[in-house]
Amino acid sequence: MPGHLLEWFGALQCGQNLRGAWQLAVGGDLAPPEIEGPRPLSMRLANKYVDRVQTAAETNLSVAAQFLKVAGFSSPPASLFAPSVVFRVAAINWQRGRAHSPELASKSTPDAAQGGAA
């Protein structure tokens, strides 16, 4: 009997991991605005975060490795919310946003802080 319970709980855990990965995949399918379908707030937030994870994964091997583990079903999607991953994702996206925004980049220069005087 204990062996059967262990198998049942193992299958239950596997099902929950697959459910999270499946929801992540389905959310990606509904990301383009041309696709019709309901998009609850949780799905919209997850899609925005995954977009930022993918952006960070372009230049950070640690984020890329974690994303691939989730995509390959070897880690649960919640692992993308580990503090170390969230920090890297936020930092990389913040840096990219500042690099692509001339008004933000100019405000952070020493000349701009001194009113334009060198």
Cα Rg:
20 Å
List low-confidence stretches. Answer: 108-118
Q: Encode the helix/strand succession as letters.
A: HHHHHH
Number of distinct helices: 6
Q: What is the mean predicted local confidence, pLDDT?
A: 76
Overall spatial form: globular
What does the largest sheet look like?
none
Description:
The protein is mainly alpha-helical. The protein has one domain. It contains six helices and no strands. Helix 1 packs across helix 2 (41-57) and helix 2 crosses helix 3 (61-71). The longest helix is centred in the N-terminal third of the chain and has 28 residues, at 2-29. The radius of gyration is 20 Å and the shape is globular. The protein starts with a helix and ends in a 5-residue tail after the last helix.
Descriptive terms for the model:
single chain; 118 residues
Helix-strand blueprint:
Elements: H1 2-29, H2 41-57, H3 61-71, H4 83-99, H5 102-107, H6 110-113
How would you sum up this structure in a few lines?
The protein has 118 residues and is an all-alpha fold.
